[in-house]
């Protein structure tokens, strides 16, 4: 954001002009929401506070009853200018009773824990009823990591100014924000800035498609039969023309349309028609599992590596193959384990995922409520999905979808992105309290949204 703002200023747009665009843009939202009700604007000492004075003045001009609460005088020149343009009432710390609250205490300049008078104000804000709006980011969150640095307030709306910050899509911050909307202030973001994933567009098979052309996926099973079947159920509904399960166990509950190959894994993997591989769900973590993982990765086919396999991957194993053919899909615990194995010591989820990608070359889909994808095309966040996904086996479904998409087109970054969207859409179709097999069963229905 700072680079984008600097570029705009170098191009002749002043900081005051940017602040007016931000404040006026946000005020339009606030005015509609207030719909005649009284508004309280909390202003901090920096430019976030400056935005607050612009919002307050704009609301006043529209005839809205508005009070500003500002415990400190503005500290920046631009915020001082904004303050001087506001003609209305300013209180220094008491939070008046109001129906709409606009929080402009701190934006991306928050640099340490919120304490004293600011913390007290936020605690009071958390306790009062009313519609609460955070300007740019909630004032107690670190915008670059999503870390909480002060009292937690539950907002109804968060208006991001000029561009999304990491906190908008990272836990725990994103859970406080309510509905999120972006206010355009005419900034061009640098090409490598983390971006929100755009809705994917998925094509139906070509007119001359046949099962191999559509993609042959091999799922490498291991000790536990359930997980790879779940992954296969999802994969069969996500686009691949042919899904094979390489397993030495019997699978009495497997669907009739799933081909199970029980010969030696090295033979199954020698098929040069294989388009993609999924290894990890139900694999186990013993010597046999390690051997199966090594055989699977030695094929040099694009692979999704998930679950147990994430505990077996190590630098030595990756040293023998081209790791840029691999996407890993770790949850929080698996990401921690991977970082330990690969000697990565970083604080935030983004830094850890980025370091893992940079150190190994693997594409990293760090899943969870705050899915984060890091790979050849940069960094992507995703809109918030259904929290009902937090049930056992949904990760296997995600891995199955990703592997199926990979078998279709061979692009790891794209496959992982499509998988997150399809997974969330499937959850959305099911509503509350579904099982992982129910989720796998509606993946084809979910695809309809993206065709
Ligand atoms: N630049 C632009 O072009 C545009 C920027 N825009 C807006 O500016 C926002 C960024 O503004 P910003 O950089 O001034 O920082 P901001 O978030 O207001 O806070 C910094 C102030 O707080 C203070 N402070 C920090 N931590 C503290 C703590 N824990 N407890 C107490 N004090 C603390 C810190 O003081 P200090 O650290 O020096 O003590 C400083 O005074 C951005 O989010 C967007 O809303 C838009 O108008 C569009 C154009
Ligand atoms: N609270 C949540 N909100 C949204 N998605 C979630 C939430 N919790 C989990 N998920 C998603 O559900 C899946 C869970 O995967 P994982 O943790 O591997 O479970 P399992 O190992 O049981 O299959 C992931 O895709 C994750 O992103
Ligand atoms: K704020």
Automatic annotation (TrEMBL):
Give the protein's cofactors: K(+); Mg(2+)
Query: Boundaries of each YjeF N-terminal domain copy?
Result: 1-193
A molecular function (GO) held by this record is: NAD(P)HX epimerase activity
Membrane-traversing stretches:
none
PROSITE patterns with a match to the protein in the record? YJEF_C_3, YJEF_N
Q: What is its EC number?
A: 4.2.1.136, 5.1.99.6
Tell me which UniProt keywords the record has, alphabetically: ATP-binding, Isomerase, Lyase, Metal-binding, Multifunctional enzyme, NAD, NADP, Nucleotide-binding, Potassium
Q: Which reaction does it catalyse?
A: (6R)-NADHX = (6S)-NADHX; (6S)-NADPHX + ADP = AMP + phosphate + NADPH + H(+); (6R)-NADPHX = (6S)-NADPHX; (6S)-NADHX + ADP = AMP + phosphate + NADH + H(+)
- How is its cofactor bound, per UniProt? Binds 1 potassium ion per subunit.
Residues that hold K(+) according to the record: 48, 103, 139
Family (UniProt) = In the C-terminal section; belongs to the NnrD/CARKD family.
Q: What is this protein called?
A: Bifunctional NAD(P)H-hydrate repair enzyme
Species, as recorded: Qipengyuania xiapuensis
């Amino acid at each position: 954001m700072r680079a984008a703002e600097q570029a705009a200023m170098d191009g002749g747009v002043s900081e005051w002009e940017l602040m007016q665009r931000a404040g006026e843009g946000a005020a339009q939202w606030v005015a509609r929401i207030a719909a005649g009700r009284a508004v309280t604007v909390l202003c901090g000492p920096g430019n976030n506070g400056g935005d607050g004075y612009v919002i307050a003045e704009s609301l006043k001009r529209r005839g809205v009853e508005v009070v500003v609460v500002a415990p400190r005088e503005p500290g920046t020149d631009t915020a001082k200018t904004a303050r001087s343009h506001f003609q209305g009432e300013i209180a220094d710390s008491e939070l008046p009773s109001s129906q709409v609250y606009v929080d402009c205490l701190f934006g991306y300049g928050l640099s340490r824990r919120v304490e004293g008078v600011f913390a007290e104000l936020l605690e009071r804000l958390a306790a009062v009823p009313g519609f609460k709006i955070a300007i740019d980011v909630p004032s107690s969150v670190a915008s670059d990591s999503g870390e909480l640095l002060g009292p937690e307030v539950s907002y109804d709306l968060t208006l991001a100014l000029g561009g999304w910050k990491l906190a908008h899509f990272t836990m725990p911050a994103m859970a406080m924000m309510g509905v999120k909307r972006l206010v355009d202030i005419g900034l061009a973001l640098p090409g490598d800035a983390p971006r929100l994933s755009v809705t994917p567009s998925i094509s139906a098979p070509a007119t001359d498609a046949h099962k191999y052309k559509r993609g042959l996926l091999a799922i490498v099973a291991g000790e536990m039969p359930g997980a790879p079947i779940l992954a296969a159920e999802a994969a069969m509904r996500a686009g691949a023309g042919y899904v094979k399960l390489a397993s030495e166990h019997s699978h009495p509950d497997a669907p009739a349309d799933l081909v199970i190959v029980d010969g030696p894994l090295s033979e199954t993997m020698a098929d040069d028609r294989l388009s993609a591989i999924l290894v990890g769900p139900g694999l186990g973590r013993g010597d046999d599992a390690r051997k199966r993982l090594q055989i699977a990765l030695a094929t040099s086919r694009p692979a999704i590596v998930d679950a147990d396999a994430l505990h077996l991957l190590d630098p030595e194993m990756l040293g023998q193959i081209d790791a840029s053919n691999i996407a890993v899909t770790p949850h929080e615990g698996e990401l921690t384990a991977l970082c330990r194995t690969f000697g990565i010591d970083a604080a935030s989820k983004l830094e850890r995922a980025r370091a893992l990608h940079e150190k190994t070359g693997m594409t990293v889909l760090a899943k969870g409520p705050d899915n984060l994808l890091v790979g050849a095309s940069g960094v992507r966040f995703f809109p918030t999905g259904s929290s009902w996904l937090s049930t056992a086996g949904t990760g296997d479904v995600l891995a199955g979808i990703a592997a199926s998409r990979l078998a279709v087109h061979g692009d790891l970054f794209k496959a992982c992105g499509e998988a997150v969207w399809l997974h969330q859409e499937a959850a959305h179709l099911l509503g509350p309290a579904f099982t992982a097999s129910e989720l796998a069963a509606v993946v084809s229905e979910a695809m309809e949204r993206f065709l």
